[in-house]
Amino acid sequence: MNILVCLKQILDPEVPARDFRVDAAQREAEQGAANLVTNIFCENALETALQLRERAGGGKITALSYGRPTAEDSLRKALAMKADAAALVLHEGGEAPDPLASARVLAAAVKRLGAFDLIMTGREAGDWGAGQTGALLAEELGLPCVSFVDSIEVTGGNLRLKRQTDTGWEVFEAAPPVVVTVTNDEHNVPRIPKVRDVMMSYRQPLTKFTLADLGLAAGADNDYYEVAELFVPQKETRCDFVNGDTLDEKVEAFARYLIAVTRSM
After folding, report:
1. How far is residue 126's CA from residue 15's CA, in Å, rounded to a whole number?
2. What Cα–Cα distance (Å) separates residue 98 from each residue in 31, 94, 123, 232?
3. What does pTM read for this prediction?
């Protein structure tokens, strides 16, 4: 089975709130003290693919990312986790691509890389959380899409896809090729690569494309939606103290204060 897993590099969503900064002019988060990490749901998808290959007794897994040059780190980690190949489409523009632009770029890269039986993405990204790229990618490729999958099995020539709902479980059978978006589950927690595999990953080849290589123009289709404004909400708090020499005096002063505030509203 030939599997492709799409990965996205994002700012670490676990960055402390005090260190989080927003560039209001660019309408995006600043890196600042935050690290760049692979989106966790994308890693869930990669782990699901690795387990599927192990159960099937073979197959090929290709990791694909569309991002800035730093996204190579995410792909090297995928290789360390034992993906077979990796490819990076370089994002050279200033503005972050929207889900439709990303889907179109990924679709062009998929067509260049070859035919795949299974294409996997995370259910959403931990930065914007739009959760649309996987379905839009399926549309661009003209393939069926099943979302929020947490386990995959091969049954004959088909794939059995399982996902949890509010009322139980849904199980689908789909004939390849198919696109799935993967959610987190206790069974697809990403494995930690060995130090030796991390070191070896930097010796493996990495395919790189520019948008021009794929016949695409930079930012030409980045009009799916527009972020009008991005800011960190500012919450003001005020604390008033009531005075009194005894507890009864403080309670009475507090009651008068509440009455005054209520009447002023």
Report:
1. 12
2. 19, 12, 16, 21
3. 0.83
Residue 88 pLDDT: 97
What local confidence, expressed as pLDDT, does residue 93 receive? 72
DSSP secondary structure code for residue 181 in this structure: E
142 located within any domain:
yes
Co-location of 247 and 140 in the same domain: no
Give me the mean pLDDT over the 212-219 stretch.
83
Whether residues 129 and 239 share a domain: the answer is: no
Q: How far apart are the first and last CA of the chain?
A: 67
Q: Which domain holds residue 114?
A: 2-209
Backbone angles phi, psi at 148, to 5 degrees: 55, 40
- Which candidate, 71, 69, 84, places its Cα nearest to that of 39? 71
Nearest-10 crossing angle of helices 133-141, 99-113? 50
Query: What percent of the chain has a predicted confidence (pLDDT) above 70?
Result: 98
Q: Letter for the amino acid at 115?
A: A
Number of domains in the chain: 2
pLDDT of 187 > 60? The answer is yes
In a domain, 50, yes or no: yes
Q: Are residues 102 and 42 in the same domain?
A: yes
- Determine the Cα–Cα distance for residues 1 and 162; give it in Å rounded to an integer: 19
> What is each CA distance from 230 to 27, 73, 219, 226, 246, in whole angstroms?
5, 28, 20, 11, 49
High-pLDDT (> 90) share of the chain, % = 64
Taking the C-alpha atoms of residue 39 and residue 20, their distance in angstroms, rounded to an integer, is 17
